[in-house]
Amino acid sequence: MMQEKFNSKIAIYPGSFDPITNGHVDIIKRGSRIFDEIIVLVAQNPSKSSLFSVDERCQFIREIFQGYEGIRVDCHEGLLIDYFKNSGASTILRGMRALSDFEYEFQMALMNRRQTKNIETVFLMSGYRWFYTSSKLIKEVASLGGSVRGLVPENVHNKLMEKFNIKNNRK
Q1: 109-128, pLDDT tens digit by residue?
Q2: What does DSSP assign to residue 51?
Q3: Domain boundaries, given as residue ranges, for the chain
Q4: Is residue 9 annotated as part of the catalytic site, yes or no?
Q5: Is the N end or the C end of the chain the one with fewer CB atoms within 10 Å?
Q6: CA-wise closest residue to 84 among 167, 166, 8
Q7: pLDDT score recorded for residue 8
Q8: Is 76 tagged catalytic?
Q9: Residue 157 catalytic?
Q10: Is it true that the peptide bond before 14 is cis, omega within 30 degrees of 0?
């Protein structure tokens, strides 16, 4: 039995990235060693309220990966699978932190497979330094004046401090 071979080595790394964390950055950098190109796809979800606009989130990511080859930033509203079909990608890249992520990610991968058979999902385990971080936790800690320095890229850290009007950054 002959297996179909994917010509492109393009992966889509979808997420809300509100905000992008160093855990996300780690997955993108590690994924870029596997794939020729990674499309970091910022999700637009009108039913969710976000701290940062889609444009701000895309700008953060572009600044972080300025000068990196093979990393592109885009945004999309709607089903990931609709974007996927026109992207030239063969794979969805996802990061997993803990066992609690597995069930949700597994369900999403199977639903995407149900929508189109020409899709693969690759999971990368989070680096141990980022195992406990999430965008939601980052926003909560920052909003209460806690330090998130080192958990998010510096450009994001500065915008979080500005957004929450925090003047005295604890280390």
Answers
A1: 999 888 888 889 999 999 88
A2: S
A3: 10-129
A4: no
A5: N
A6: 8
A7: 62
A8: no
A9: no
A10: no
Which is catalytic among the residues 9, 97, 113, 163?
97
Contact assessment for residue 96 and residue 105, using Cβ atoms and an 8 Å cutoff? yes
Write out pLDDT tens, residues 18-73. 999 999 999 999 999 999 999 999 998 777 789 999 999 999 999 999 999 999 99
Give the C-alpha separation, 108 to 113, whole Å: 9
Alpha-carbon distance 125 to 128, whole Å?
Answer: 9
pTM of the model: 0.89
- Inter-CA distances, 21 with 10, 62, 90, Å: 22, 14, 25
The DSSP letter of residue 33 is T
Identify which has the larger pLDDT, 161 or 103.
161
CATH of segment(s) 10-129: 3.40.50.620
Are 35 and 116 in contact, with CB atoms under 8 Å apart?
A: no
One-letter identity of residue 123: F
Q: Which of the following is catalytic: 135, 139, 157, 159?
A: 135
DSSP 127-158: PGGGTT--HHHHHHHHHTT---BTTB-HHHHH
Question: Active-site residue 117, yes or no?
Answer: no
Give me the catalytic one of 24, 76, 139, 159: 24
One of 33, 48, 167, 170 is an active-site residue; which one? 48
